[in-house]
Amino acid sequence: MSLPHMVSYFHKPLMLSLEVPEDWARANMPDTILALFGPEVSNYRTNLGFNLHRLTLATPDSFDNLINASYFSGRMENSFEEFQMVENAKFTLDGLEAFQARMKWVGEEAGARLALTQLDLLVKISPDTVCEIHGYTLQQFETDNIPVLEYMLGSIRFIPPKPVTKGQPYHIEISPN
Fold first, then answer.
1. What are φ and ψ of residue 38, in 5° steps?
2. What range defines the domain where residue 56 resides?
3. pTM for this entry
4. To 5 degrees, how large is the angle CA 44–CA 102–CA 7?
5. Of 1, 60, 80, 118, which cross-links 105 as Cys (Cβ 3.0–4.6 Å)?
6. What is d(CA 50, CA 30) in angstroms, rounded to the nearest whole number?
7. Does a structural domain hold residue 115?
8. In angstroms, what CA-CA distances link 122 with 22, 30, 161, 167?
9. The predicted structure's pLDDT at residue 151
10. Which helix (H) or strand (E) holds 130?
11. pLDDT over 70 percentage in the chain
């Protein structure tokens, strides 16, 4: 399976860049910092939603605690019909702690039952902040769409903030041209 033509996308509020299929579009969604949608197929758009999650305690095990509470507490099995955890792994993405999980479940949208595959990525971008990324596609198209979502997630790069030195204001020199 070949990937669609990708373009580089930078999102300044999250300070991240990633590769996105050129036919995808950004959309405004409530409670989501960034939402990207693929073209409509069978009345559904494969999508990725980005958000930030603040950890209540910034301890060495807080990221693991979030993973366990979110994915292994039994909540998802109780919340979603026909829920199945397909795969999950912890790894490093762009030098940061990360966790990825792929799940299948059946949901309902506008009265229609949808068999979905969900691909989630959590990235600990600071001691107290996790970037949550949730991708969704219809199960019938997962063979084509999951590799695209995985490629997009793997292409993510976070731009670190410029360190601030106490007592030294930020200074820009402009050359006379």
1. -80, 180
2. 6-158
3. 0.87
4. 60
5. 80
6. 11
7. yes
8. 24, 20, 19, 35
9. 96
10. strand 129-138
11. 90
Provide the residue count of the chain: 177
In a domain, 169, yes or no: no
Please check the confidence at residue 149 and state whether its pLDDT lies above 80. yes
Dihedral angle over CA of 10, 163, 92, 71, nearest 10: -80
Q: How many domains does the chain have?
A: 1
Question: Does the structure show a pLDDT above 60 at 71?
Answer: yes
100's tokens: 């990825």
Whose structure tokens read 């769409």?
Answer: 145
Residue found by looking up tokens 């229609």 in the block: 112
Tell me, yes or no, whether 175 lies in a domain: no
101, 85 in Cβ contact below 8 A?
yes
Q: Where residue 52 sits, what CATH number does that domain have?
A: 3.40.1000.10
**If you average pLDDT over residues 71-76, what whole number do you get?**
90
Asked whether the beta carbons of 133 and 150 are under 8 A apart, the reply is: no
Residues in Cβ contact with 30 at an 8 Å cutoff, skipping those fewer than 6 apart: none
pLDDT at 177: 45
Residue 17 is assigned to a structural domain of this protein = yes
